[in-house]
Specification:
By secondary structure, this protein is α/β, with parallel strands linked by helices. It folds into five domains: about 190 residues, Rossmann fold, CATH 3.40.50.300; about 70 residues, Arc Repressor Mutant, subunit A, CATH 1.10.10.160; about 170 residues, 3-Layer(aba) Sandwich (Rossmann fold); about 160 residues, PCRA, domain 4; about 45 residues. The chain is about 45% helix and about 15% strand. An eight-stranded mixed sheet has the order 11-12-10-13-14-9-17-18. The two termini are about 50 Å apart.
């Protein structure tokens, strides 16, 4: 079948995207709308119909897997190898460019690419050379800072001088890091893109060569581009290249790692004569699921706008389960998964999605007890996460000073100035004397075998553990863990890691406190801590299903993007959990949370369950939160409430009742949670919360320029935006 015959199999919008002859093309591709198919067919159309040389095409995507699949599909369509065509990730294409023109880019012939771990080691060496305290300025924080500057296209020399100690220290480290990498011929991932962009700017003759060569530039997942990626593309495109970008502003969920939704929103302004094509026909989900997704995302402003639909069936209603607590929620999900499998379906057809990594612990426990196969997609099991293993190592030392593995793990975590040389000396002493590392450390301090600085640090660690044991003796288990997290500074140490990762580590440590609060010791005559540690180690020893084994897929909502499952559970649909409690802290965060909800809903193909807990013990505290606004956004006729006994009923609020499940917390106010409003003094903002009902209700609004404020509704004179 040639390309013209294949075009006949496309729907009208796909066909328009594939055959457009306009200078620039923006394809707004909704979830499950066949965007990759349209993209590879457009490349085939350019080659076979418009007689464009494959060598004049540059196609960019975001993962190596997606790039391989795109290349394979193009080869199948054209029937010839496409080795000469530039198809790859941003980093891969930048690397190819720099390899070809390394001298022009100021790089040696054999320049080395640093992965994340390599980059960490380089920064650690700089800390030692510059005598910087890594307990005050964590290495991961510096790594995040450097990468964030490169994503914005900024060198150390571009940063303004500051009296702020943090920025002054980061600036100093960034400058030293650049010098070290330059001297060693090393290039990190961010440097690949920044150096490639600078190559265009510094070598106009090279830029002109590639502008003449690449007359057609196609970019997938355009909503995920960052500043330097977009700048690189704009410079390369010049005035004559035809640019096709494919993306979905409603699925832009990576702002926390540098992606700029403004790139896709402003594409029409940055490029002349842009034609916009919307792919709205969905080939994945039922009509009920799509209507729910449309309703959720419709509450966001500043959208380019589209409405998903399908020629398929309406499908089942969306099921909503109101759990008593998080254990009840996990039991419900486990029971529904069993029923699904008993009908002859595969375990791997089930996706369990959650907003916070910490939620996985209770779900994992329930699946382990039920002996159901599961796998954490794109992450570690709860008890295998770095911060949890660090915390457990301290707890193991409290119960057994002979635990060498635990001792080695935390003697310098958080960092306290005990380097690898000191650790090596302790290991040698322990071997020579036939003693544990703990006793070797005591001996080394007593006999002054270390320089004073190292001896002080090691003695401080020994006193910390001994003092902690005395402090927690007799306390309930969860209070022992809370005290350990504070005294060792583990919570603050992991929290200093910037972005979502640092927040997730703190939440996981707080969830460890919840696990201890729930724990029931089998033998009340024995201390609870060693019994808890035994259970934790056994749970950690329960292997995840192998990658090729049929298993339930557990993952965060961020990890779910690009995947699909016949059966989807979205757990923890509560205010302050989803949307996350920090989403009101800065402009745009709440809108990104809503896009995340949209991504979650559109992962479901046949059946979607939403669940929330009336009381959830999370991060070590009991939380009583209202059902998520994202649930309340879904039209009443699409939802049924279910019970474990398989009873089904419509939520009463949808029929004019007063069910607390769907109350707006602002009944009679005329406003909704998440609504954009205008105040005559504070400007525009987003409604976060209500207290009370009617005109005398108090309303919490996060104003774009003034931050969060509580106002009495009758005096606030708010206007809908």
């Amino acid at each position: 079948m040639d390309v013209t015959e294949i075009i006949g199999t496309l729907n009208p919008a796909q066909r328009e995207a594939v055959t457009s002859a306009d200078s620039h093309l923006l394809v707004l591709a909704g979830a499950g709308s066949g965007k990759t198919r349209a993209l590879v067919h457009r490349i085939s159309w350019l080659v076979e119909v418009e007689q464009v040389s494959p060598f004049s095409i540059l196609a960019v995507t975001f993962t190596n897997k997606a790039a391989r699949e795109m290349r394979q599909r193009i080869e199948r369509l054209l029937g010839v190898p496409v080795g000469g065509m530039w198809v790859g990730t941003f980093h891969g294409l930048a690397h190819r460019l720099l390899q070809t023109h390394n001298r022009d880019a100021g790089l040696p012939d054999n320049f080395q690419i640093l992965d994340s771990d390599d980059q960490t080691r380089v920064i650690k060496r700089l800390y030692q050379a510059l005598d910087i305290d890594d307990s005050r300025w964590p290495v991961k924080q510096t790594q995040w800072f450097i990468n964030a500057q490169k994503d914005e296209g900024l060198r150390a020399r571009h940063l303004q001088a500051s009296q702020d100690p943090f920025h002054r220290t980061m600036h100093r480290l960034y400058a030293a890091y650049e010098e070290s990498c330059e001297r060693g011929g090393m290039v990190d991932f961010g440097e690949l893109l920044l150096r490639a962009h600078e190559l265009w700017l510094n070598k106009p003759e090279l830029l002109q060569h590639y502008q003449q060569r690449f007359r057609h530039i196609l970019v997938d997942e355009f909503q995920d581009t960052n500043s330097v990626q977009y700048a690189w593309l704009r410079v390369l495109a010049g005035k004559d290249s035809r640019v096709t970008v494919v993306g979905d502003d409603d699925q832009s969920i990576y702002g926390w790692r540098g992606a700029r939704i403004e790139n896709i929103l402003n594409f029409n302004c940055d490029f002349p004569d842009v034609k916009t094509v919307r792919l709205e026909q969905n080939y994945r989900s039922t009509q009920n699921i799509l209507q729910a997704a449309n309703a959720v995302i419709a509450k966001n402003g500043d959208r380019l706008g589209k409405n998903l639909w399908t020629e398929g069936p309406d499908g089942e209603p969306i099921s909503l389960y109101a759990a008593f607590n998080e254990q009840d929620e996990a039991r419900f999900i486990t029971e529904q998964a069993k029923q699904w499998a008993n009908k002859g379906n595969r375990w791997s057809d089930i996706g369990v999605l959650y907003r916070s990594n910490a939620q996985s612990r209770v779900l994992e426990d329930a699946l382990i007890r039920a002996q159901l196969p599961y796998r954490i997609y794109g992450g570690h099991k709860f008890y295998e996460r770095m911060e949890i293993r660090n915390a457990l190592a301290y707890l193991r030392l409290l119960t057994n000073r002979q635990d060498d593995a635990a001792f080695e793990r935390v003697i310098n975590t958080p960092t306290r100035g005990i380097g690898e040389k000191s650790a090596l000396t302790l290991r040698q002493l322990a071997r020579d004397e036939g003693m544990s590392l703990w006793h070797a450390a005591e001996k080394a301090v007593a006999e002054k075998l270390f320089p004073s600085r190292a001896a002080t640090a090691i003695n401080g660690f020994l006193q910390l553990v001994d003092g902690l044991q005395q402090e927690v003796e007799g306390l309930p288990l969860h209070e022992q863990v809370e005290a350990m997290l504070q005294r060792t500074d583990l919570m603050a140490f992991h929290g200093r890691e910037k972005g979502e990762r640092g927040q997730a580590r703190k939440e996981n440590l707080a969830e460890l406190v919840s696990a201890c609060r729930e724990f029931s010791a089998e033998d009340p005559e024995r201390p609870a801590l060693p019994q808890f540690l035994s259970e934790a180690m056994l749970n950690a020893g329960e292997r995840q299903a192998d990658s090729d084994q049929d298993a339930i897929q557990l993952m965060t909502l961020h990890s779910a993007k690009g995947l699909e499952f016949p059966l989807v559970f979205m757990a923890g649909m509560e205010e302050n959990l989803f949307p996350h409690r920090m989403s009101g802290d800065e402009p745009g965060r709440l809108e990104e949370e809503r896009r995340l909800a949209y991504v979650g809903v559109t992962r479901a193909m046949e059946k979607l369950f939403l669940s929330f807990a009336e009381c959830r013990q999370l991060y070590g505290k009991d939380n009583y939160n209202a059902v998520s606004r994202f649930v309340r956004d879904i039209p009443a006729e699409l939802v049924e409430e279910v019970r474990l006994s398989n009873q089904v009923r419509r939520p009463t609020s949808y029929a004019g009742g007063s069910s607390a499940l769907f109350s707006d917390q602002g009944s009679g106010t005329g406003f909704d949670l998440g609504q954009r409003v205008m105040h005559n003094i504070f400007g525009e903002g987003t409604i976060l919360n209500f207290e009370g009902n009617g005109p005398q209700a108090r309303v919490q609004v996060n104003f774009d320029s003034e931050g969060s404020k509580w106002l009495v509704l009758s005096f606030a004179k708010l206007e809908p935006v």
